Amino acid sequence: MIKIDYPKELHIFVSIYVSVDMPQNLSDHLYKSKFSLTLVHKASKAIIKKGAIQLDKDSTKLTEGEKLTLKLFEYFTSLQRVLQDIENVLVFLKIDTKKIRKVYPLLDTDEEYYKYHFENYIIRIISLQDIVGKLGNILYKTNIDDEKCNGYNFKEALKKNGNPKHSYISAILEQSIDVKKVRHKKLHRGIAEINNLRGVVFWDDLEKATSKKFDRILHEMSAGDLSIQINEIEKETVKIIDLIIEFFDNSLDELNNI
To answer: Would you say 247 and 168 are in contact if contact means Cβ atoms under 8 Å apart?
Structure first.
């Protein structure tokens, strides 16, 4: 039997195609859009053709439209990967730190643990709007340098061109404007106050520091506060995904014209 090594993009396509009708998590939620189904269909043809060319079974070259489609597909799968990273953050945030200490006894404090994962979320959630900007740059031919393209300058380019669809990008940016400020401080100053943890008391840390025991009700109240904040960022992420889907589904004509 001859084994054919298909290009890696085709394996990605297959995994995405399988998950489209079985939404289970945040990244699958992204593929509920009409845009994603159309893009997967268009990209699959280009991927198979690219594979045939690489295997010397096709003498033709990819068209410019096919190259752009593959670039769009690459960025779209990047969105999926970022959402998978956010899912991992949520998983770790929901684990009782007592269980974490069993496998990682060197964990210093609960506060540092939660702070680390909330910061991780903040950094990744902003990546979504920047990738959307790069996708939009291709779809709407705004000709922004790819390395410099992000959600903000893509929105401004649409606005400058008189394209009313800049409002969709504005909504995405507005949804995470406060998170953007925290991320900026973290990246440029090395420290940032995590608003989600403001007012949360880590009683286990206090017990360790003071050698005193506090009422279990206080522990339970703090656990409830943390649970609320974790649910809030999960809901926030879903809202952003829904806004992204709305933008893409209103960009089907641009996709079909590539």
So the answer is: yes
Predicted local confidence at residue 160, as pLDDT: 96
Is residue 198 packed enough to be buried (19+ CB in 10 Å), middle (13-18) or exposed (0-12)?
exposed
With a CB cutoff of 8 Å and minimum separation 6, the contacts of 255 are: 35, 38, 39, 42, 72, 139
Quickly state the pLDDT bin for 5 (edges 50, 70, 90). very low
> Which pTM was predicted?
0.82
Indicate the DSSP class of residue 190.
S
* Euclidean distance between CA atoms 110 and 201, whole angstroms: 10
Is there a contact between 92 and 104 (Cβ–Cβ < 8 Å)? no
Provide the 10 A C-beta neighbour count for residue 154. Answer: 25
pLDDT, average across residues 143-170: 95
Res. 193: pLDDT tops 90: no
Q: Which of 66, 87, 80, 78 is nearest to 19 (CA)?
A: 80
